[in-house]
Amino acid sequence: MPPAQRAAAARLYLEAFGGKIGGILGPAARAQAFLADILDPDHAIAALQDGRLVGIAGYKTAQGGMMEGGLRALARHYGWPGALWRAPLLALLDRRPKPGLLQMDGICVDASARGQGVGTALLNAIFALAETSGHTGISLDVIDANPRARALYLRHGFQPVRTQNTGPLRHVLGFAAATTMIRPVEPGRAGFTSPG
Fold first, then answer.
1. Strand 44-49 vs strand 101-109: parallel, antiparallel, or unpaired?
2. CA angle 184, 186, 192 (to 5 degrees)
């Protein structure tokens, strides 16, 4: 992803995942500033139309991830009191990549570009990246409040392997459960196909 697109990517990410992280990160302007600060373009794939960002797909490896902010980054934007209560909640949402797996760190498409194949193109790029980097599979987490995303992942070969309930934290997090889904990497097949 071009580094110049960081602010646009932060806005898009917050629009897509505001239901999941908005309650933790607070007002949109501050949340966007924080996300733009921590976003690592080296762990993001961008979809551009005429130079405008219309989609991003983030990922994590052992070397880092698209959204990797620690306590100091939180404190820069929220002060230490705000950082200290936000950090444990954000840690609950964090997923570390398992050995051999490329961990997806969010995929989002601008509303103006939906239905144009941007999401599928981003998934194809993630799959190709996983293959060329020697990963055996791709892992992601999808929340129960996003059935459209789950359906998309199922169509492209991801299978659910575990569901984790959020319990009483659902009121803060905005969702009741998250399902881990995995798609194996098949060497020589660097793209996804949609079933007929």
1. unpaired
2. 80
Are 180 and 153 in contact by the 8 Å Cβ rule? The answer is no
Torsion, Cα of 21, 25, 30, 34 (10° steps) = -80
Helix (H) or strand (E) holding 15: helix 6-25
CB 36 within 8 A of CB 6: yes
Instruction: List, for residues 137-168, the tens digit of each pLDDT value.
Output: 999 999 898 888 899 899 999 999 999 998 88
Among residues 49, 51, 39, 48, the alpha carbon closest in space to that of 105 is found at 39
Mean pLDDT of the chain: 90
Determine what percent of the chain falls in helix, strand and coil, rounding each to the nearest 5. 50, 25, 25
In 3D, which of 132, 55, 141, 129 has the Cα closest to residue 97? 141
| Residue 13 amino acid letter | Y
What is the C-alpha to C-alpha distance for residues 43 and 162, in angstroms, rounded to an integer?
Answer: 25
CA distance 121 to 104: 15
> What's the rounded Cα separation, in Å, for the pair 173 and 192?
31
